[in-house]
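Repro case for the chain-ordering regression, as requested:
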Amino acid sequence: MTYAINNHFLVKRSIILLLFVLAIIAILSGCQSKKNKNTLILATTTSLNDTGILDVLISDFNKSYPKLKIKPVAVGTGEALAMGKKGNADILIVHSPEDEKKFIKDGFGVERIPLMYNYFVIVGPKTDPAKIRGKSTLLSFKSILNNNALFISRGDDSGTHKKELKIWDKAGTQPASIKNYLETGQGMAETLRIADQKQGYTLSDRGTYLYLKKTIDLADFTSSDSLLFNEYFVIKIDPKKFPKVNTDGASALIRYLKSKKAHEIIKKYGKDKVGEPLFFSSKW
Amino acid sequence: MVDFLNFLRENNIFEIISFSLKVSVTAIAITAIIGLPLATLIGLKQFKGKKLVVALINTGMGLPPVVVGLFVALLFWRSGILGWLGLIYTPTAIIIAQTIIAMPLILGITISGIQSVDDSLKKQILAIGASKIQYIITLWKEARLSIITAIIAGFGAVISEVGAVLIVGGNIKGETVVLTTAIVQETRKGHFDVALALGAILLFISFVINLTASLLQQKIRHE
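-- result from build under test --
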């Protein structure tokens, strides 16, 4: 069935409207492109971002550099490094020393600066079925393995996950051979919650654990030995390899993160929220 | 009540609500401006491959939104083809992703509505000498039940979507935080009170929209 109407009219109108909308988007993004030089994409870990310290540091940084808009994207160490390898981020703050060193060696990053550190914590059921209380990190992990106690892993390629795998490796085993092992594939808070519900052991970053302490029923078995050392590094992406990254912005942020002012903030952060500072400064 | 309002303000919830509504309403507006004429064209015109096009649109309705998000991000990442636009992690990127998500919905339902307008009525309108614009407007009036349903469905889909918005928007504080991504983040941080408040607000918005649509639809049915 055909109609007397000329359908070209509709086609024309649709095309005109489409072009109109595309023009608007182009104009909007034109404004964005100029802003590209004023945008800094910071890829970082969820555990660090969730503590809120980045927001405080960034807002202090913006007092001296109001024009630079920093976009912290919390994706996890593995993904942050992957983004860096594609040039999708301008600067990284992560915590996986071996991967970071390889990243620099492979030519993706040019500067690697220590920022702050704390210690991971081993948490688990108060009844301590694997009897790890008082034991070193290595012996604790071995105990968990030998007692077939339940262990919950992040399983998500994060810095925490990589640290956990490193400890298992030192203890002479792989997750595949551990009987009672669960991988959540999620962030630290979810993993802690699952560990709480199932009353299993897990490795956590200090910040998230302190925040959740009141709402979960897990005890802290940390021994503060060197195996649990957790240091965050800032990495600048190589501008020669990725000319599109905002290298001036990255340099400005790095200059700030080396400053005494930034480290004063780092040393105090957390006192009002959890009663103790969450981090120690790597510099001062 | 005052405590509740202070609670909302402290957690930037008003900002999050207004931003969420801003992007979703903009996305639906764009989808409607492009989609309604396009759907009318498809609905009215007979062309080769029409059945395929309609089938594709209907398939698009079931497209997982997070996949759309991933695809849009691949385009807009610095390494992507459209990376030079600098759109990744911006409200514009969210609007674009939401438009793509809502488009098959609005197209599909509107096409169906246009096609169900009585053929003899269409002929009548033309017979009394209506201009092209008058014809279209009358058609849209006849199919208004479907059109309203389409727009509401589209809005509902995008306001409650979380995967695509997270990937293309980055959930950046003060910039691209919407209700759904805020709920994920607050839950992850263990702030259940904030997460529940956000959830309640999202439900409320959804309810109000749907109630309005329902009332409109009932009114139209009984005319």
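Ordering looks correct now. Chain B touches chain A through 41 residues (CB under 8 Å).
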